[in-house]
């Protein structure tokens, strides 16, 4: 019973529509009416710029961390690593579900990548940091948030299955599902990248100007 209550709370935390609230309070618009129509960090970068995109991304990551860490309210899980990991996965997935289908914003949210990352930070920080490294490297090289998210999601699976060789079966299955979900939810972005129509985030402008002058 207590576990169910925490899962519901995790869903409510994930449902906080960061991009929607920020776009409405700061710009008087609904972010879902612009760009890709998603209420996530990628579309915020595209529509509102790098400053607000970064703020949304950080808050959405923290949503995943906070929701996944709710297990601390059940002391019996503190001494059992297997049960604790399984509960954390359940809590994290509830928060991701909340981000994608937020009860506070008409069940129309984002793609859940940042919240998934927060979930990974809470469960296995070293893997999460490795994925963040992949994300930042790809973002620096391409300025495509979507491609950075896709490769970070795929690398999460690679890190769990092969590099860190996680033994927990549920976590391994979860890693595969994460990679599949990230790729499937970014199919339109992949199509736009192949067509050359995907928007780049407005960062590293000075680098681009220097290249143009050369």
Brief overview:
With 214 residues, the chain is an all-alpha fold.
Features:
single chain, 214 residues, mainly alpha, 11 helices, globular
* Content-based structural category: mainly alpha
Order of helices and strands: HHHHHHHHHHH
| Separation, N- and C-terminal Cα atoms | 65 Å
User: Structurally, how many domains make up the residues?
Assistant: 1
Per DSSP, what share of the residues sits in E-state strands of 2 or more residues?
under 5%
Largest sheet: none
Provide a count of the helices: 11
Radius of gyration: 18 Å
DSSP helix fraction? over 70%
Assign an overall shape: globular
E-strand count: 0
How do the strands and helices of this protein lay out in sequence?
Elements: H1 2-14, H2 18-27, H3 41-48, H4 50-68, H5 81-100, H6 113-123, H7 125-142, H8 145-163, H9 169-185, H10 187-195, H11 205-213
Describe, in plain words, how this protein is organized in 3D:
- This protein has 214 residues and is an all-alpha fold.
- It has one domain.
- It contains eleven helices and no strands.
- The protein has helices spanning 2-14, 18-27, 41-48, 50-68, 81-100, 113-123, 125-142, 145-163, 169-185, 187-195, 205-213.
- Helix 4 packs antiparallel against helix 5 and helix 5 (81-100) packs antiparallel against helix 6.
- The longest helix is centred in the middle third of the chain and has 20 residues, at 81-100.
- The radius of gyration is 18 Å and the shape is globular.
